[in-house]
Write a structure and sequence with these properties.
The chain is α/β, with parallel strands linked by helices and 363 residues long. The protein has two domains: 1-158 and 317-363, Isopropylmalate Dehydrogenase; 160-316, Isopropylmalate Dehydrogenase (3-Layer(aba) Sandwich), CATH 3.40.718.10. Helix content is 39%, strand content 17%. The strands form two sheets. An eleven-stranded mixed sheet has the order 5-4-3-6-13-12-7-8-11-9-10, with helices on both faces.
Length: 363
Amino acid sequence: MYQNNQGSLVNFSQENRPRLALTLGDPAGIGPEVILKALADPKIGQKYDVTVVGNRDLLAQTYYKLNLTENLPPLVNPDELSVIDVQLNGEIKGEIIPGIGNAASGAASFAYMECAIAQTLAGKFDGIVTGPIAKSAWKAAGYNYPGQTELLAQKSGVERFGMLFVARSPHTGWTLRTLLVTTHIPLRQVADTLTPRLLTEKLDLLVECLQRDFGIDRGRIAIAGLNPHSGEQGQLGREEQDWLIPWLEQERQNRPQLQLDGPIPPDTMWVKPGQAWYGNSLVQNPADAYLALYHDQGLIPVKLMAFDRAVNTSIGLPFVRTSPDHGTAFDIAGKGIADAMSMKAAIHLAAELVSQRLAMGCS
């Protein structure tokens, strides 16, 4: 059993275990290793119905190689796993080299994703947990997507989607939730990309997610400013004065059930979450979620607090999708030292969100 955000307990029986597809990620990275470590944990392997989407022989190669490493944490034997063996041609397989991301490893990880999405949309799985991929390897293989989130959205036929990062503090049990308004775009494009319409779309997604996935109906959401000191009344940038503050005032009128704080100066918005994460007894009423306007504004504090346990959650999809918040780490692939904590957290959170949706009658 685990404790969800509302303090209730959920017990998974053999019959109602969440059905999760777990993609291998880039097979040249640490994805195979962290999967073998994560699924060796009985709290995961015996509780959830997990199917690995990848190649059984690549998993086996990783397993036998890692077993030569001293002081290695337990690994699950691939022979004991449920695996959808995605067929790759011999040329691609022969060019997959641990520690080197290339067109072959990109083609493989893309094929795993396509298979997992198709099987989930067909009803075989309730959600997808994705192993880390390298965008450069996808591009080398001819797939020009900013990331896995955009592929998931396109294949699912949705236009409204977002990247929400979730982490539960090991110190206090408090849950940090951070949604990015803009994601993988150059910094110089951020101010031009941000619009009242885009912020309303992301806020809609966040409110829906809090209600459907976390059971929070009357939430408190903190919204960051764009400029230093939130523009300091126009002296350090006009975006707050010209449209961000008026937009926020209108949203407060439209959503009286919510508490919308902001625009909060970006350098101070993360003080309360940091205190709530580490257990400062003086912090009161941290927000239920944080809306960051661009990638690093949200992810620098998330990774500072929760690098080893944050989970990337795609919201707006017709199914649950989570992913560990780390990359392929080609430099340590195959060395036995990759930390599986974020992968475990991604699997646990996916199961929790699936259970929450099923309890609420959501698909």
